[in-house]
Design brief:
Helices cover 11% and strands 51% of the residues. It has 214 residues and is mostly beta strands. The protein has a domain of 135 residues. Strand 11 and strand 12 form a beta hairpin. The longest helix is centred in the first third of the chain and has 23 residues.
């Protein structure tokens, strides 16, 4: 099943093939479908933002730094590896950190190639507000994200990522729990993203989409 979103900054598209959501407060105190979908978009958006920031200045891209370090072979293909860490505040407190490495291989004449992404997403007391409820998330352990970005004419074109891990959540109205996720984010050359699968054991395509407080 699929849902498509027009590209707004770095809104995420995702495939969730998740196992069950364990509710520490009991079966009647879980996240709502809308809250789970909201958290899914928040985490995917943070991940894609981290991908864009980690690629900034990479050799071979239109935004790249001339003479950036890397090995160039006889065919004019440059290869490199860069480490990256970015921490930013969450909207209602706490932090989200993306870190890891990029490995690139791009032909400097055609400016085409691929960049392999290996990142982690760490959320520490990362709080956001949806409607009247504040939801605070911690990752346990950090969520991993791996995938490939395709480069054409010096620009990011398409990409696909797998994302696995567990997050703990707590709401301001007294609920708490944990969810395991297995996420695939895909974006297309036309700027759209695709989202499908399950979140916390639920079919994402059937969930109510995030509304106010997004």
């Amino acid at each position: 099943m699929h849902m498509r979103f027009r590209h707004l900054g770095l809104l995420a598209g995702a495939t969730f093939l998740a196992s069950a959501c364990s509710d520490m407060s009991g079966p009647n105190h879980s996240l709502t479908d809308a809250e789970a979908a909201y958290l899914a978009e928040q985490m995917a958006s943070a991940s894609l933002d981290g991908v864009t920031q980690s690629m900034a200045g990479s050799p071979g891209l239109s935004s790249g730094i001339a003479g950036a370090p890397g090995a160039v072979d006889s065919a004019g293909t440059i290869t490199w590896e860069r480490n990256f860490t970015m921490t930013r505040p969450c909207s209602a407190g706490g932090t989200v950190t993306t870190s890891g490495s990029n490995k690139g291989s791009i032909n400097m004449d055609a400016r085409t190639g691929t960049i392999e992404i290996s990142h982690t997403l760490a959320m520490t007391d990362c709080a956001s507000r949806r409607d009247t409820v504040t939801i605070t998330v911690n990752t346990s352990p950090n969520i991993t994200m791996n995938g490939t970005v395709n480069i054409e004419s010096g620009h990011r074109s398409t990409g696909s990522f797998s994302k696995q891990g567990t997050f703990l959540w707590q709401t301001s109205d007294g609920r708490s729990g944990s969810c395991q996720v297995d996420l695939t984010i895909t974006w297309n050359a036309d700027g759209t993203h695709t989202m499908s699968g399950t979140v916390c054991g639920r079919d994402f395509a059937k969930m109510q989409q995030p509304g106010p407080g997004r």
